[in-house]
Design a protein that fits this description.
Layout: E1 4-9, E2 12-17, H1 28-42, E3 49-53, E4 58-60, H2 65-68, H3 73-79, H4 85-89, E5 95-99, E6 102-104, H5 106-113, E7 116-120, E8 124-126, H6 140-148, H7 150-159, E9 163-164, H8 165-171, E10 176-178, H9 183-195, H10 199-212, H11 217-230, H12 235-245
Bound molecules: acetoacetyl-coenzyme A.
C-alpha cells in the first residue's frame, strides 16, 4: 500500500499521508515516498501549490516510535536521522498543511515545515516527545519557538499537552480554521488562488518571509528589496502591472 496518495487538480497537487493504522506516523519509507513523488513536481513549472494533508483522525501522530525505539545513539548519528526532512523543507513550491485530528510530534513539525497551516476544528497540536524521554527532533524547538514565542513553546514542549485549533489560531500557528468537512475543499480553493500567480514571485515571497525569521531587520529588508528588484527580470512582472493598467486579469507564464 502506498504511504502517499497524490492527486492533481490543475496547478494544485494534493499529497495525502496514508498510513491509517499507524495514524500516519512518519517513518523513513513514508518520507522517501513523499520526496520521490513531490520532488519532480516541484520542478514542474505548471505546479503552483502543494497541499499536504492526512485523514480526519490524524494529520500525523508523530515520527514512528516503533522505528526509533531500538536505535542507538550511533545509529541516529550515522544515519543523521531526520536529516532527510531538510529535503522536504527545501521544496520551493508553496506548501499548505491542511490539518485535521492529531498533529503530534513530527506531525506538528511537518505542519510547521509547510508555509501555511489551515486546520479544522478537530485539529490537535502537540510536541509530546518529553513523555518519551526525548525532545522534538525535526524542528519543534526551533520553528515552534519562532512561530509562537518561547514561553508558549516551552509550555507545550515541557508538558507535552495538546493544543486545540482555537488555541493554535490565537497563538499564530494556524492561519485559519474551517469546519472539518470543508477543510480540504477550502484549502484547495486557496491553493488554486495561490497557484494562479507567477511562480517566481511565489517562491520569492516564501524565501523573503523565511528570511524574516533568520536575519536581522536591515539584512532582511535588503534581501527583500534585492529580490523585489530581481522580479523585474520576469515577463510576469510586466504582464501583472500591464494587466492592472489595462483593467484585465493577468496571464502569468511563470517566468
Ligand atoms: N509511532 C508509531 N505508531 C504510532 C504512533 C507513532 N508516533 N502514534 C500512534 N501509533 C500507532 C499506535 O501504536 C497504534 O498501533 P497498534 O494498533 O499497532 O497498537 C495505532 O497507531 C493507533 O494508536 P492508539 O491505539 O494509540 O490510538 P489512540 O486513539 O488510543 O491514541 C494518540 C491516539 C493519542 C495519537 C496516541 O496514539 C499517541 O499518543 N501517539 C503517539 C504520539 C507521540 O508521542 N508522538 C511523538 C512521536 S516522537 C516524535 O515525533 C519525535 C520528533 O521530534 C519528530
Amino acid at each position: 500500500m502506498s504511504n502517499i496518495i497524490i492527486e492533481r487538480e490543475g496547478a494544485v497537487v494534493i499529497a495525502r499521508l496514508n498510513r491509517p493504522k499507524a495514524l500516519n506516523a512518519l517513518n523513513t519509507s513514508l518520507l522517501d515516498e513523499l520526496l520521490e513523488k513531490l520532488q519532480p513536481l516541484d520542478n514542474d513549472p505548471t505546479v503552483g501549490c502543494f497541499v499536504i494533508t492526512g485523514s480526519e483522525r490524524a494529520f500525523a501522530a508523530g515520527a514512528d516510535i516503533k522505528e526509533m525505539e531500538q536505535k542507538s545513539y550511533l545509529d541516529m548519528f550515522q544515519e543523521d536521522f531526520f536529516g532527510a526532512w531538510e529535503a522536504f523543507t527545501a521544496l520551493r513550491t508553496p506548501k499548505i498543511a491542511a490539518v485535521s485530528g492529531y498533529a503530534l510530534g513530527g506531525g506538528c513539525e511537518l505542519s510547521m515545515m509547510c508555509d501555511i497551516i489551515y486546520a479544522s476544528e478537530s485539529a490537535k497540536f502537540a510536541q509530546p516527545e518529553i513523555k518519551l524521554g526525548v525532545i522534538p527532533g525535526i524542528g519543534g524547538t526551533q520553528r515552534l519557538t519562532k512561530l509562537i514565542g518561547k514561553v508558549k513553546a516551552l509550555d507545550l514542549i515541557l508538558t507535552g499537552r495538546m493544543m486545540n485549533a482555537q488555541e493554535a489560531l490565537q497563538a499564530g500557528l494556524v492561519a485559519r480554521i474551517f469546519p472539518k468537512e470543508e477543510l480540504l475543499d477550502r484549502t484547495i480553493e486557496i491553493a488554486h488562488q495561490i497557484a494562479s500567480y507567477s511562480k517566481p514571485s511565489l517562491i520569492a515571497a516564501v524565501e523573503a518571509v523565511d528570511r524574516a525569521l533568520e536575519l536581522g531587520l536591515r539584512e532582511g529588508l535588503l534581501f527583500e528589496r534585492r529580490v523585489f528588484h530581481a522580479l523585474f527580470a520576469t515577463k510576469d512582472q510586466k504582464e501583472g502591472m500591464k494587466a492592472f493598467i489595462e483593467k484585465r486579469q493577468p496571464a502569468f507564464v511563470g517566468g
